[in-house]
Amino acid sequence: MSSREPDPRDVLILPAPPPNAVVRYGPHEDNVADVRLPSAPGPLVVVIHGGFWRSEYDRAHTGHLAAALVAAGYAVAQLEYRRTGPGAPGGWPTTFDDVLAGVGALPALVASAARSLGRPAPLAGPPLLVGHSAGGHLALWYAAHAPASAAPAGVLALAPVADLVEAHRLDLDDGAVSALLGGGPDERPAAYAAADPLPSTPLRLPTVILHGTKDVQVPIELSRRFVAAAGAVDNEIALWELPEVGHFELIDPRSAAWGKVTEALRSLRR
User: Fold this and answer.
1) Which CATH number fits the domain that encloses residue 155?
2) Is residue 25 in some structural domain?
3) What are phi and psi of 259, to 5 degrees?
4) Which of 11, 82, 107, 222 is the most buried if burial means most Cβ atoms within 10 Å?
C-alpha cells in the first residue's frame, strides 16, 4: 500500500478533541472561545481562526492546531467572533469589536475556567496571538489598535490577509473584503483605513508572519507588501517565507511546515 502526504485541507473537516471548557466574553452567541489547558502552567495563546471572515467557517477547524499547542505546553483559547454572510451580523465594525473585546477578556476568563476545573492557570502576563488567514489579519489589526493596557505579548500571523486594498483588487474569495467592509476602497475609504492592520506608531512588539510561497488562497505578495510598509514604522516585524508551502499546511500539525510554526511561536517569547 503506497503512502501519501496528508491533504492539508483535511484539517478543515477532521474532528478535533473537545475543549476543556467554553467561555463567554459577550452577549451574542458567537461571543465565545474554546479553552484547552495543559497539565502544567503555560503561556496563554489566543487563536483567531480564518475563513475570509465568513460565517460558513468557525473556530472548529483550528482545533487540531490548538490541541497540538496544548501538547507543546501552551494554554489555548480559540476565539469566535461575528462573521459575514446572509443574515450574519459580522463585518465592520462588529467583527472588530468582538476581537477587541474577546482578546482583552480572555486572560481572566481562561484563568477562571482553569480554577473551576481544578487545572493550572496560565502563566501571568498578556497572551500571544496566533491568527490564520483572515484571522491573521485580525491578529495584526488587534496588535496595531488595542489599548496599551491590553497589548499582546507577541503576534504570529499565518498567511494573513495583510493588505485589504490589494486583497479587494485580487477579489480574494469572491468579494470577501467587500463583504467585510461594505464595499470597495473607493466606496468605503474610512472603513478600509480603520481596518488596516498596519501600525501607525512603533509597537515594539515581536511579530512573525509565516507565509508559504505556494499559497493560492492568500498570495504571499500580500505579506511582502505589509512587511515592506510596516518596516518603515516597526522593525520588530519579520516575514518567514516557506518554500513549497501552501495555505492550510500552516494550521495542520501533520505537515512538514508545522515545525516552523512552533519555532516562530517560541521566538516570540525570547
Assistant:
1) 3.40.50.1820
2) yes
3) -60, -35
4) 222
Picking from 12-21, 24-33, 34-43, 208-217, which range would have the lowest pLDDT averaged per residue?
A: 12-21
Q: How many domains does the chain have?
A: 1
| Integer Cα distance of 10 and 111 in angstroms | 32
Residue 177 lies in a domain: yes
Q: Looking at residues 14-24, what average pLDDT do you find?
A: 93
Query: 29-32: which pairs have CB atoms within 8 A and are 24 or more residues apart?
Result: 30/80, 30/81, 30/82, 30/83, 30/89, 30/90, 30/98, 31/80, 31/81, 31/82, 31/98, 31/101, 31/102, 32/80
Confirm whether 2 is domain-assigned.
no
* Phi-psi group of 48: left, alpha or beta (phi > 0 → left; psi -120 to 50 → alpha; rest → beta): beta
Q: Please give the share of the chain, as a percent, with pLDDT higher than 90.
A: 88
Task: State the pLDDT confidence band at 38, using cuts at 50, 70 and 90.
Answer: very high
CA 222 to chain centre: 16
Q: Which residue has the cell 498570495?
A: 219
Domain membership of residue 3 (yes or no) is no
